[in-house]
C-alpha cells in the first residue's frame, strides 16, 4: 500500500475508536504529514486497513526508508508512539469524559479508560497477545503462569545507543507524571500517547494509569504525584483502603519497601491494582486468630505458601490501625531459630507486602510478612527463590508474584520448547550451554514421567507451575510445617502483648 493509504487508515481508525471526530480529520492528516516530513498528499483510492499493527508497520517502514527513523525496535517504538500521540486526545478531554462516566459508576469509567489506553496503542494489544499464559492447579489454588513477551527486548544496536545517549534527570523515573506525552529517547520509553487520570487518595494528589504490559486484566498503576520513595506505614494502608473505596471493583496492593522483597522501582511511591481475581484472594483462612482490642475485626492466617495475615472489617480506619500495629511488631521481630532477623548492622530486614480489596460491604487487607535477610548459603535472600529454582525464576518476588501470578522471563518460551524436544530425543543436556541449567530438574522429572513427543511440553509447562509454587514457599518466612505454624502463632502472640 502507498503511504497515503496508511495515513488515511490511521485517521479512519482514530475516528472509529472515538479518539477524534470528523471535524478533526484535516488536522490529524496534517499532524501525521508533518511527522513524516511529507509535503504532498492526496487521499488514497486503495482499500484502507483496520489492523493497527499493520497500519503502524506501514508507516514505520516508510519512515525507515526515508531516513526518519533508525530500523531497530527501540527507535521504531519511539516513532510509532509519536505517530499515535498525534491522534490521542488531550488530557482535558480524557479527564472530563472519565469524570462524567465515574459519576455513573466507577466501573464504567475504568472500562472506558482501559479501552482508550488500548485504542491509543499505549497498551500494545498485539504484543500482549503473544505472551504465553497457562494455569497450574496447586494445593493453594489455581495459579497463573505467564511468560512475558510483550516487553520488547532491545537489540545490540539499541543497547549501544541507549548507553551513549545523554543522561537526563527528566523525567526523574518512568512513573513520574512528567511521562505523560513525553517523546521518549533511546534510554527512556516514549509516552506521547500516554494519558493519566488525577485522583485524590488520603487527601493527596495521586494519578491512575494502566501498565503498558498488562500482566493481568486491567493491570493499573496508582502513583504519587510527587517523586517520593516507597514506604510501608500507616499512611500506605490508609491510601490502599481509600483507593478501593473509590474503585470498589478493583483490588490494589503495594510492593514492599525494601530491596530483594520489594519491586523493581523503590524510588517512587506507587501501587498496582486491577480487575482480576488471583489465587491468593480465593485462598481460605486456615487458622483464625484474634487481636486484643480489635475484636470488631476478623483475622486469620491464610492457606498460602507465603505468610499472610488477613483482616476483614467494615471500618477501614480500624483495619489501618491494626495493620500498623502488626507492621510495627514485625519490623522489630526476630526469630533466630527460623532465620528471621529484624536488623543487622543497623539495616532493617522486615517489612510487609499489603493488598486491599472489597468483599461486599467489608474491607479486606492481606498482610504478607517479608524478610530480606541474606546468608552465605543464600546470598540473594533466605526468603527468596533458592538457587535450585533459578533456572525458572531468579528475580524478586514482588506484589504480582505474591498473589499467585508468575511473570517468567521471555527466554523460557524458547528454552522449554527446545528442552521438550531434547528430552524426547535423549540428548545430553549438560553438554548444552543453554539447557545445562535445567538438567538436574529434568533428571528428577524423568523418574516421574515417561516423556513422549505428544506430552513433553505439557509436562514441562505444568512442572514449571509447580516450581513457581515452590518459589513462593521459599519466599514464605513461616513454612507450612508444624514448626512454621508454631512460629507464626508465636509472632501473633507478640502483637497482642
Short recap of the structure:
The protein is an alpha+beta fold and 497 residues long. It has helices spanning 3-16, 25-35, 52-65, 73-85, 91-104, 106-119, 125-128, 156-164, 234-246, 279-282, 316-331, 399-402, 411-425, 439-446, 456-475, 482-495; strands spanning 132-138, 141-147, 197-201, 204-210, 220-224, 251-253, 270-274, 285-289, 298-302, 308-313, 343-344, 347-348, 350-359, 362-371, 405-408.
Low-confidence residue ranges: none
Please count the beta strands (DSSP E, at least 2 residues each): 15
Spatial order of the strands forming the largest sheet: 3-4-5-7-6-13-14-10-9-8
Structural class: alpha+beta
First-residue to last-residue Cα separation: 75 Å
| Mean pLDDT rating | 95
Q: Level of helix content?
A: 25-40%
Report the C-alpha radius of gyration, rounded: 25 Å
**Assembly state of the chains shown:** single chain
The biggest beta sheet, please? 10 strands, antiparallel
Overall 3D geometry? Answer: globular
Number of helical regions: 16
How is the secondary structure organized here?
Blueprint: H1 3-16, H2 25-35, H3 52-65, H4 73-85, H5 91-104, H6 106-119, H7 125-128, E1 132-138, E2 141-147, H8 156-164, E3 197-201, E4 204-210, E5 220-224, H9 234-246, E6 251-253, E7 270-274, H10 279-282, E8 285-289, E9 298-302, E10 308-313, H11 316-331, E11 343-344, E12 347-348, E13 350-359, E14 362-371, H12 399-402, E15 405-408, H13 411-425, H14 439-446, H15 456-475, H16 482-495
Parallel strand pairs: 2-15
Antiparallel strand pairs: 1-2, 3-4, 4-5, 5-7, 6-7, 6-13, 8-9, 9-10, 10-14, 11-12, 13-14
Helix pairs in contact: 1-2, 1-3, 3-4, 5-6, 9-11, 11-16, 13-15
